[in-house]
Input
Amino acid sequence: MGFSSGLPLALTFGTLSYWLAELGVSLTAIGLFGLVRASYSLKFLWSPVIDRLPIPLLTRRLGRRRSWALTIQFFLGLAILALGMTDPKIDPAMTALAAVIVAFLSASQDIVIDAYRIELLLPEEQGAGAAATQWGYRFGMLASGAGALYAASLGGWHVAYAVMAALMLVGMVTVWLTPEPGGIAPPEQLPGANAAARIEEWLKRAVLAPFLDMFRRNGGLQLLVIVLFIVFYKFGDALAGSMANPLYVQLGFTKVEVATVAKIYGVIATLAGVALGGIVVMRWGVFVALLVCGGMQALSNLMYVAQLWAGHDVAMLAFTIGAENLTGGMASAAFVAYLSGLCSRDFTATQYALLSSLATVGLNVLAASGGYLAQTLGWAPFFVLSTAACAPGLLILVWLMLRSSSAPAGAA
Output
């Protein structure tokens, strides 16, 4: 399931940005293409629908989670295929539309997978299940990153995206062979004398209750600060990462070089970082881990400046990508632990969808300015600026640490 979740991510920006840069699309336009993934930041808006509503005919036969997962994955495979059939040089608007659809379906799939995992596993299995999902997620990104670049170098971009569409079968087969959490049961009957009363009750349970629960547990001011922290913690890293592939193209790296070093070696470094980050959380607690790993993540952005000075140097590329992905993986492990600790067990699916949506704002919305900034400032000042952009999140974290004597319950 993690593989199926990670697969579409690079196809709507990382791999797509390489395709666009190769065609000579401007850096500003490439940066703005990051906006097509706004669905990851807005998925909490429709998460109650996926979480609570049945699909006619299918839900009674397959169950609520399996019916939604298989339906979304089927259309997601078709959307990826359609994206690969577009020509961004001739009709960039059609490419953007197809990418928006892929991102929307991918974000919707994440909602189902998160709920599926939480409901399927016992409480003592949740940690291992989350770790397995993260590893699968990275392998999915490896397939759509390095795998897509290799496929494109052999058969072109249309073939690469067709192969990625076929790989959605991995997730579909997994869901088909996995039992429905709690067994297949008839859809829940809501109380109420009429349709209006039942809709009102559904809105209270599915939409209002999860948000009111977070407000009651944290209070207004602290909840606002938490939201700002979630948005800005990964912002600087996302800003730098949004222009990584265009930098590689300008420095003359080939598809195979980028696929081998930036994708395969980078994913291995990320997995090592996730493991190290988990150890740091266990040893020092979630807040200290967030501060230490976040500081290292910020400094790693300066490696892009060193890469710019080194030019087309594969060894330096390996060092740059290794440092950036290792620290990014460490920060991600601490960040996921923090988000998990903020969720109430009664509303995990909707609350996690909300928090993970906020976490992608920096990646998918704020970082869309990366292309304009790089084009205006130049490469070296841009990456120095991306390092400075990490400061707001870390300063907010210090405020939260001073307000709390311990990490959120369950976060460590």
